[in-house]
Amino acid sequence: MRFSTALSLVTPALAATKGFNYGSTFSDGTIKHQSDFQGEFTSAQNLVGTSGFNSARLYTMIQGDTGGVIEAIPAAIATGTTLLLGLWASAGQADFNNEVAQLVAAANTYGSSLADLVVGISVGSEDIYRVTPLGVASNAGPGLDPEGLVNYINQVRGALAGTPLASAMVGHVDTYNTWINTTWTQPLIDSVDFLGVDAYPYYESTKANSIDNSMSTFWDDFNQVVAVAGSKGVWVTETGWPNQGPTSGQAVASIANAETYWQQTGCSLFAGNVMTWWFTLQDQQPVVPSSGVVFAVTGPGNPPPTTPLYDLSCSA
Ligand SMILES: *[C@@H]1O[C@H](CO)[C@@H](O)[C@H](O)[C@H]1NC(C)=O
């Protein structure tokens, strides 16, 4: 889409949400507190060569040491960071009840100062992928099928009725290849307000997945999800290229290739105003897709350094 300079100057709201994924612990397992999240969110906003990385995708509503509302919420309010909230959905109904309870507690505690920042709420993260043959073969851990996710989405909508988050968009995040199996996912696609897509050409080792093909592979993945999404929004909830780690098919992990992936795929997403949460600012457990693989664009540190590991400016 093309806008005149004058129009784009007066319509900053058209700029898409951009941000990173944030786990609830540091890579050594230490639980993050409000000041830790605030340091990360502030570093993201001040990353050299970039502007506008002021959104955070979370994986859980629960603060690990207290069982209360995750402290990323007050950190986001303090820093003006928008939020794609997440509820972990693969640990059974009792644990999901705790996720929902903290979501409702957050809505009632923080009210409009939270609601104004919430871009969406994801029920689950790659739950379906983990119960596909591919996920099972990768020992990806417990998951949940589309029918179970639809049930949970209805529970969340019911719990949020009458709270300040009653009109928030509720969706789900999964891998691109999971979404496009519509014989399985159609009821879930019908149920969600948005589809969050995780796509990593680095891991697509059954394809010719060298860095040279990475941008076309990513957009092919993304567009296949758009094709099944109907009128629903498709958001990029995870993508990135590792700066170190094992070779995956033809994909080599290196600083140079991570920079190329950002410059090509990343900058095309940002220029196209696609809602994007990059993987990742600094690596953290337990959400690193595979151990030994480092996706960070900066850090590690507390707060992470604002000087990135490679050039993040979108010059072209
Ligand atoms: C799609 O999902 C169905 C389960 O409904 C499964 O049997 C089938 O193997 C899946 N197809 C692919 C290509 O994964």
TrEMBL record:
It is found in: Cell membrane; Secreted, Cell wall. It catalyses: Hydrolysis of (1->3)-beta-D-glucosidic linkages in (1->3)-beta-D-glucans. Residues 1-15 form the signal peptide. It comes from the Eukaryota. Keywords: Carbohydrate metabolism, Cell membrane, Cell wall, Cell wall biogenesis/degradation, Glycoprotein, Glycosidase, GPI-anchor, Hydrolase, Lipoprotein, Membrane, Polysaccharide degradation, Secreted, Signal. Its main location: membrane. GO terms for biological process: cell wall organization; polysaccharide catabolic process. It is a lipid-anchor; GPI-anchor. GO terms for molecular function: glucan endo-1,3-beta-D-glucosidase activity. Its EC number is 3.2.1.39. It is an enzyme of class 3 (hydrolase). GO terms for cellular component: cell surface; extracellular region; plasma membrane; side of membrane. InterPro entries: Beta-glucan_modifiers, GH, Glyco_hydro_17. Glucanases play a role in cell expansion during growth, in cell-cell fusion during mating, and in spore release during sporulation. This enzyme may be involved in beta-glucan degradation and also function biosynthetically as a transglycosylase. Belongs to the glycosyl hydrolase 17 family. This is Probable glucan endo-1,3-beta-glucosidase eglC.
